[in-house]
Design brief:
This protein has eight helices and four strands, in the order H-E-H-H-H-E-H-E-H-H-E-H. It has 164 residues and is mainly alpha-helical. It has a single domain, classed as P-loop containing nucleotide triphosphate hydrolases (Rossmann fold), CATH 3.40.50. Strands 1-2 form a two-stranded parallel ribbon. Helix 1 packs across helix 8 and helix 3 packs across helix 4.
């Protein structure tokens, strides 16, 4: 979900593992020379989801990499199955209040929330959770945030990846 901490936590795991970190949204922006917001605005969400799938296919075959997917990535184009078949997946399960707070205080514009007031952002988060949770719950491991600290998560991820 947007605001769950995927990039922040992903960077910490990559550093602990001594792996490369890839933020799928940043990779798309770099290669397409457009922001995610501009891609949504100019070409639409369906076009973006196809790009997202294309770049996911390029990254899931890499070795020693931690990939931070966009909040909707697992929900389209059979991506969740691809992720699970090619690596170990983690779901960062945030409360509506936490996600709302992070989205409202984010320096980065989130395309799905542009122009929305706080009440409508909260409704949109609830709607996205209702639709996306069945996909997220297919992840190999789930972590409740903020109950789980970043360091605790990293320690558990190390055990899962290297000692299971």
């Amino acid at each position: 979900m947007p605001g769950s901490g995927k990039s922040t936590w992903g960077k910490k795991i990559a550093k602990a593992f001594q792996y490369t970190f890839v933020d799928l949204d940043k990779l798309i922006e770099l290669n397409e020379k457009l922001s995610i917001e501009d891609i949504f605005h100019i070409k639409g969400e369906e076009y973006f989801r196809d790009l997202e799938h294309k770049y996911l296919l390029k990254t899931i075959v890499m070795n020693n990499v931690v990939i931070s997917c966009g909040g909707g990535t697992p929900c389209y184009n059979n991506n969740m199955n691809l992720i699970n078949e090619n690596g170990i997946s983690f779901y960062l399960n945030g409360t509506i209040g936490l996600l709302l707070d992070r989205i409202l205080n984010s320096k980065r514009q989130r395309p799905m929330f542009l122009g929305l007031e706080k009440d409508n952002i909260e409704k949109k988060i609830e709607e996205l959770l209702r639709i996306r949770t069945p996909f997220f719950e297919q992840a190999h491991y789930s972590f409740n945030i903020p109950q789980e600290t970043v360091q605790s998560f990293v320690n558990k991820a190390i055990k899962i990846v290297f000692f299971s």
